[in-house]
Fold this sequence. Notes:
The chain is an alpha+beta fold. It has four helices and eight strands; from the N terminus they run βααβββββββαα.
Amino acid sequence: MRLRLITAPAGEVVSSAEAKAHLRVDNIDDDALIIAYLTAARAHLDGRDGILGRALLTQTWELVLDAFPVAAISLPLPPLQSITSIKYQDSSNVEQTLDASDYVVDATSEPARVHPVNAWPSTYVTPNAVTVRFVAGYGNASAVPEPIKTAIKLKVQALYDNVPPDQMAAIDRASDALTWPYRVMSV
């Protein structure tokens, strides 16, 4: 399973104005620095490389497989918003797009699952024979759960205040406690 980011999230989960209010900063001198910290804090949690194993803001990804699985395809990075397409190399090595009526999407489960209506089609024996393009994330920043936003603010504050390493452990524990219920443990 390989994941490729197609369209990155637009913006940040926590706005610079929200971060500045949390930091009690009312000047513009450190705006660029605060934005960089917001990006770093969000990236620590978000997407393929984030510790949550989920997408926070709307983003488009491709899941690439060598063949269809025996049963359902598990889609990482919940919550799933939609499937854009499922393409595959057929047994003659010609790219095909699977019709949406040939599969059922279980977007309620985390991770979401895609089940064939009957059976998955045969694929050519080649690496990367199946590509599932999907849109994931909570949507906009207002839909992201508040504990995740608070964890981001804590990280930004620790970076902004240049918290010493021995005190950073306490902030990391608080952040972990806030985000633990949102972690996706396996796909």
